[in-house]
Write a structure and sequence with these properties.
A seven-stranded mixed sheet has the order 3-2-1-4-5-7-6, sandwiched between helices. The chain has one domain: 3-Layer(aba) Sandwich (Rossmann fold). It is an alpha/beta fold and 183 residues long. Helices cover 26% and strands 27% of the residues.
């Protein structure tokens, strides 16, 4: 229950960072397509990928890929360019090498005015999540992949292909929202 409320809050915060005009969206870590469904019944391109893809989301305007980003796109053609690429509560699961590799692919996928919108929790959140799992207030899936990721390192790791446009905290300072554009 709490994890669903936090997800809704995270998606709402990310939507505030959307560019004015959006014709295509890619969701890294789309899971059950919650974020893509937020766009409703529209004609824009709504694509995504997730290694644990559980979505039953289907539309002529949507392509979902089961696998890890960016390698899943080596053999699957995406439609891009995308005006918004989301990575919400995802990059803290990536290794530094995967983040560096991802920055190149994201820059290739973004439209000229497109944005990468990222949320990454504060490292202290791992301790809170552990407690919430013990109390059975959230589902503990993929928490073993958290590795105390430092949100401050994200700008440096993505800097070869992406430039920070804005950054803010939300959820009482326990979550970070980054917006990047391609260089």
């Amino acid at each position: 229950m709490i994890d669903k409320i936090l997800r809704q809050w995270r998606v709402s915060a990310a939507f505030e960072a959307l560019p004015i005009e959006v014709n295509g969206v890619f969701d890294i870590g789309c899971d059950d397509s919650y974020l893509l469904n937020y766009f409703g019944n529209c004609k824009m391109c709504l694509d995504g990928c997730d290694p644990r893809l559980t979505a039953d989301y289907s539309s002529p305007n949507s392509k979902l890929f089961r696998g890890f980003f960016p390698s899943v796109l080596e053999y699957n053609e995406h439609r891009g360019p995308y005006d918004a690429i989301f990575a919400l509560a995802v990059f803290e699961h990536f290794s530094e090498k995967d983040l560096i590799d991802s920055s190149r692919k994201i820059a290739e996928m973004l439209s000229d005015n497109g944005q990468l919108i990222v949320t990454v929790p504060h490292p202290f959140v791992d301790k809170i999540l552990d407690l919430l799992v013990v109390l059975k207030l959230i589902d503990g899936q993929a928490l073993d992949e958290h590795h105390g990721f430092d949100p401050n390192s994200l700008v440096t790791l993505l800097s070869k292909h992406l430039q920070l446009k804005s950054r803010k905290t939300f959820q009482f300072g326990l979550n970070n929202l980054f917006v990047f554009k391609k260089i």
